[in-house]
Fold these 4 entries.
Entry 1:
Amino acid sequence: MSERGAVPEPTVMPLDREQWRKQLHLSNFVNTYYQYRDLQSLDCGRRILVIGPGQGLDTQVLRWVGYEVTTLDIDETFSPDVIGSVHDLSMFEDGRFDAAVASHVLEHIAEPYLDAALKEIARVARHALVYLPVAGRHLQLRFVPGITPLDLSLVIDMHNVLDAPDGVTAKYCEKQHFWEIGRRGYSVRAVKRRLAAHFDVVRHYRNRDWLPSYNFVLRSRQK
């Protein structure tokens, strides 16, 4: 592990952010639906912090269904309500939100800042949705019969199992990911254990409608 002084501080992503902001794909709609579904299942209240609003579809939908949404991003490109980094939410008081949503955000910060980010989310929100990317390419065999609610799915992830992120170098350059679910040292069990230092894990699951996403539904352990 590099010395703390060499760890890159959270910053804007070096991609064409203006162009990316204007792109919408099926995954945006699937991800937004799962956020809505998970928040509804928590029945946690209406005050929501969306960390990393991206194209803004989830924000618009959540506001449309009655949630009071505040957005936060380190990059003003995405027109957040508040500019700041997830590892320092000092602009918000304890328990300010009923839930925080960090969908495909935390992998964009170097690993030494991860615990600080989780601690801050648990401090400002009573619940959290943390969605994370799954490494590699994905193959799915799925059987959904039309006359029963049965949904069977077999998912195979293909990537270099020996690839171990150092947590301080964004190795997956086009995505600027410092780490991902499934990489060595970042198994679901390892990430769940890390989350459990700050949250009770209500449930966790693979999004079978968008395979690159593994989703955690959390309840803050801070009083």
Note: Strands lie at 47-51, 68-73, 82-83, 97-103, 125-133, 137-143, 152-158, 199-206, 213-220.
Entry 2:
Amino acid sequence: MADPSPEPFRLDVPQETLDDLRARLERTRWPDEITGSEWKYGSNLTYVRRLVEHWRADFDWRAQEAELNAFDQYRVPLGGVDLHFIHQPGVGPDPTPLLLVHGWPGSVWEFHDLIPRLTDPGRFGGDPADAFTVVAPSLPGYTLSYRPGQPRFDVGQMGDLFAQLMTDVLGYERFAAQGGDWGGYVVTCLAAGHAEKLLGIHLNFLPVRQDLPLGDAPSEEDLAYLEELRFWQAEETGYHAIQGTKPQTIAYALTDSPAGLAGWIVEKFQTWTDHRGDFEGWVTMDSLLTNITLYWVTGAINSTFWPYYAIRHGPWPLPDGRIEVPMAYASFPRETRHPPRRFAEPFFDVRRWTELPRGGHFAALEVPDLLAEDVAAFFRPLRQRR
């Protein structure tokens, strides 16, 4: 059987979907809030009310839709999913194919400022020889790669699907890959299962087990990481437990209430970004709402929870042995956790380990310039392996 052919895709949300969204926003029923709590107990009421009012009255979805449609987008039937992806040609003498993988609660929108820096570095003062041709899929089950009732995918299955996309569908025998959040897991699974296809992998989230032994004489860096883990497990894993145990239950509220969906998602951006007290100056409401609207208009939130359930109820998805693919890690100061390099080296062929001066969990959205520079620097000596 011949491999399926991609079909060009253009995003055009029906106006009745947008009208229904606006009507639901007008009817929002608000909770109370403990006075002076700000973001301590979750999404701040004052901020979410302003975000929802902006969404209802001022947010221009059609302008954001046009910005997404400026990219070359496609859909292809793979694995029971109509897989959506951006396939943006590089501008340079010999662009290297690069798979770019997002996570939760993100989307390909996270890459809207990063992709041009990767595909056309000369436009930003870089070297055209560093150009990539970028393939950025929506994860199966996420936003534009979702339809009701389709199969659920764990991170290993996503890696296999993307290997098929890159080689069988698009014809790239060797390619580079980059990912953060679940994208870091997917790219690592891809390297473990399809090493012969990878030039290297670049991660801005390091998927290492949280139960690795510290040894008899832990360093200050080890102890700092242990404290990060303690705080993370005590204060930041509520969403993970819900999405990983009873995802169907929370899905009713988030699929029915746009204000509820916004409150669920925006708290992660506020908590995990490097805004340093100026959240709105760091991530604009329009950018947040573009991402949230993609979740709303596709109705995809329930299926995006599946990787949490799968990782909680199945085996650890990554191999115990070493992955023999060149690897780089970009550590951003407001990432949720900072594993020491020595925790990575038994499992990865670490070629580059960079401590960046600013940025957080959503680095592609927050600091696309720094991420693009680090990706280009890592893959520069590896391009000849094609």
Note: The CA atoms of residues 61 and 358 lie 29 Å apart.
Entry 3:
Amino acid sequence: MAPLTAELRKKGYHECNPPDPLGMGPYMPFARAGMGHIMVPQRGGHSPDYGYDVIVHFHGAAPVRKTLVQVARGVVFVGVDLGNGSGKYSEPFLRRESFPEFRRSIEAALKRQSGQSQAHIRHLALSAWSAGYGAINEILKFGDQNIDAVVLLDALHAGWEPGQRHDGTVKSVSAAFIAPTIDFARQALRGEKILVFTHSYVDPVTYPSTSLTANLLLSELGLSQEEVSIPAGFLTQVKAVDQAGLHVWSYRGHDELAHCAHISLMARILSDVVEEAWDTPEMDRDVPAVTSPAVNASAPPAGVAKNEH
């Protein structure tokens, strides 16, 4: 993936507003799919019976798309941006039927874009950055039978435990709010699902940070992270848990740029974890690149204080 050079930074690009070297690249232009926008490989990226591996991403879809088109083997991307605050993402999925309806709209778009009536979702991942976790946690409340993977890019916040001091300890945090995600993590630990949760050390003060929520999650699972030191562009990974389908990665950083930099981790997550596990069918990259502007391609994500919770 193209790095953020000093020259690009001088032009105004940064972790919250990365450059866009490929546009849509080997993908077709965005098309509508329910509340989101879908991009399908121009050629390939599907099994013989037209099964596609799909990742649905909530919040910050434009910068995630810029990363994904550079590295994806063949996954279909659906981006959903509904505004700031986790409530904007949880509210559309309060009904049990909301996500199944959305899934059907995605499969209908796959059929239209591919021109194949048998086109369908082969594997499905839900992904979120920052406030987008509100959608995933709400969706998981109604079951996860048709969800194969969850990716949380600095994107999971529990709630405070009533009556406890907010002292930064696990006992101060309530697991009740994120219970569906914890259940999904247990399945990942058994190798039945994939969960990748990356976190920074940004402290939002008024609600538990992603790092504190990660500590809570691992405590619930009876796990602890190992110390590592792995440079990752703007970020440095300092701790990790990698067991079966569960991956919890801690990255140094306490500010907005560190928070936004987690978007770039989609490259590693796709290449090393999700598409590798799924053996995603390869799309043909030797096609004329689609460089037309994408949906919200120029709009950088909002700041940490506005969209975290």
Note: The domain at 6-307 is CATH 3.40.50.1820 (Rossmann fold).
Entry 4:
Amino acid sequence: MPLIQDAGRFRESLAAWPVATFQPGEIVLAAGSSTGKLLILRRGAVGIVRDGTQIARVSEPGTVFGELALLLERPHTADVKALERSEFNVADAATLLSENPSALLYVAAILARRLDDANKALLDVKRQVEAGKPHEVIAKAVANVEEVLSSAGGREYVASWRIMPTV
């Protein structure tokens, strides 16, 4: 039995959320800002930029943005920048997560997947260091950890919640 039994109802509820559209180059979320919004990617692609460096590219529909700022009660930690025309369903994060258990479980499952992926990637780095791998190999593994930690979704879980964009 799936953890979230009314996933279909949650996906359907997204249709009632406002949609925000961003053009290439526009900032979706700015590091240091506090929007209080939860955004779910409908279509498009964004870059996650931290300290001036793009550390991830995200294009998977259903990916969530803004959850860490809400749950940690602090400003956004990275810029999310549209790489192509991108659409998001947008909701007030605190209201949504306090009133919609399915949304809360959805975000929790994404965060759990991200943590699991990060643990695996970190273990890979540790093994490479212990094996004396070249700096370039270790640097690539560290970059993988960064991408996993900054990614707004867990690919396997998000794919099971795929939101079919409307044309």
Note: Residues 152-167 have pLDDT under 50 and may be disordered.
